[in-house]
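We include the pair:
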Amino acid sequence: MGNREAATLRWTVLVPLKALPSAKSRLAATLDPVAHVELVEAIRADTLAAAAGAPAVARVVVVTDVPGDFDAALTVVQTEPGLNAGLAEAAREIASRWPADGIAALVGDLPALRPAELDAALRAAAAHPRAFVADASGTGTTLLAVTPGTALEPRFGLGSAARHAAAATALAAGESLRADVDTVAELETARLLGVGPRSSEVLARWARL
């Protein structure tokens, strides 16, 4: 892809969201059920809003195993079980609908995500057929992006950064794009970076209790 094409490439961002209450099981182990659902919904809302706010993003598409209301995002209900199979299935559908756009899979637990940092990563990804961003630990993946005509081939899960590195270019990225939340410690890290309004409201309300 030439420099001019890369600079103007638009992206469809796929965000996989597992049905509640089974989502974010490690957080669930430390929170009561009501608080767990409230927090996960807030984190998801902030992630979706931030992704939609990145200038290079044409649309945000939720990939889920159960239909639901995801703040007016487009939704693909997967028919194949599993995170990677669902993302691959959704990517094929999206590529057929918007073949000129890049496709990026973005994890749904980035409450501190800044649109500008996602935008910068996508613009960098446009120069490579397949690229990814590792999480703060360096072992997981928060973003996997492919340019038009390249299959997504997601390999998310424990140790996914090494698997993605075998077939994708690793990108430098801002802290907010790497700060996914699976544990209370990671939630505190995100809070210190500055979470979005929904997560901020939930955490502030908890602090007053």
